[in-house]
Design goal:
Layout lengths: L1 H4 L38 H10 L8 H60 L1
Length: 122
C-alpha cells in the first residue's frame, strides 16, 4: 500500500521542455450529400428485381463469384490438411515427450526403491 502514500509530482509541459500546439490543419468542412428518398416495394420479388436491375447489387458476376468461392474452398481444404498434418506432428512430439517423462519417473521410482532397500539392509 506504499503506492497510495507516495506523493505524485505534477509537472507542466514547460517543466518537461515540450511545446504543446496543434499540428493538424482543417482544410475544409462540408456536409455529407443528401440521401435519395427510399422506395417502398410491395413484395420480395419486386425488391429483388430492383436490387438486381436498378442497384446492380444482386446477380452481378455470378460466374466470377462461383469461381472465387470454388478457389476459396480449395484453399481452405489445402490449409485444413496442412494444419491437420502439423497438429499430428505436434501431438506425436508431445506423446514422445510424455513417454520419455514417464520412463524417467519409472526409473526414478525404481532408484528410490533400491535406495530404500539398501538402507533397510544395511
Amino acid at each position: 500500500m506504499k503506492a497510495k502514500k507516495k506523493p505524485l509530482k505534477a509537472l507542466s509541459p514547460a517543466d518537461l521542455q515540450v511545446e504543446i500546439k496543434s499540428r493538424l490543419q482543417t482544410l475544409k468542412v462540408t456536409e455529407p450529400p443528401k440521401r435519395q428518398g427510399g422506395k417502398i416495394v410491395a413484395s420480395v420479388d419486386e425488391l429483388l428485381d430492383k436490387l438486381r436491375n436498378e442497384a446492380k447489387f444482386l446477380g452481378k458476376c455470378n460466374a466470377l463469384s462461383e469461381a472465387l468461392n470454388k478457389c476459396l474452398a480449395q484453399e481452405f481444404e489445402v490449409r485444413r490438411k496442412q494444419q491437420l498434418k502439423e497438429a499430428r506432428a505436434r501431438r506425436a512430439h508431445y506423446e514422445a515427450k510424455w513417454k520419455q517423462m514417464d520412463e524417467e519417473d519409472r526409473l526414478h521410482a525404481e532408484f528410490e526403491q533400491a535406495q530404500q532397500a539398501r538402507k533397510q539392509q544395511g
